[in-house]
Amino acid sequence: MKFFKYDKVNGELEIDDEGEIFLIKEFNALLDLKRNVTKDDKSGKKRALAFKEFKYIYLFFDWESVYFSFNEQDKHTNAYSDSGLSSEEFDNPLFREACKKYDLMQNSSRDLKLLKSAMGAVDKQIHYLDNVDLQERDPMSGKPIFKSKDLIAEIKGCRDLISTLRELEVQVKKGLEIDSNVRGGTELGMFDGK
Question: I need a surface site. Which of 1, 16, 79, 108 has the fewest CB within 10 A?
């Protein structure tokens, strides 16, 4: 499923050549001329609001986004800033429905769900390491709660965790790219290997 092309140099978003995204009612609703009328575009034909919304959707939800591997809050902060949406535009119910639909479509892949879960586990590991206090003591015994040798072992394990996560991300993205190129339920041909 590849609906957008993003020009990272200019920060511009384009809809794929076939425009299949507009077959989905939640995305087609964003193009309504009346809701796209602005002081700069009295007719709404430029659809500037819709493209700001699509830009946020792509940057926050899409697996090809430059922010894909960011945590949820950082993804939102960056996508919101880059899209130029106002808080009123962000809270628009039609936009929220389109976000939910795109998120559902992106997360229909079990591979991607697994990758996101793995990324979430890494975020929890980061939180744990950020909050380990080697000076913390058990109030009853006075002994350290965390041992430095255990912490060192966990830090060494992070190297394997990082490389495994990167390998998983590459493998999942490769599979998603192949899946997005095979449309209409067709089967992979002999030259379309994974």
Answer: 108
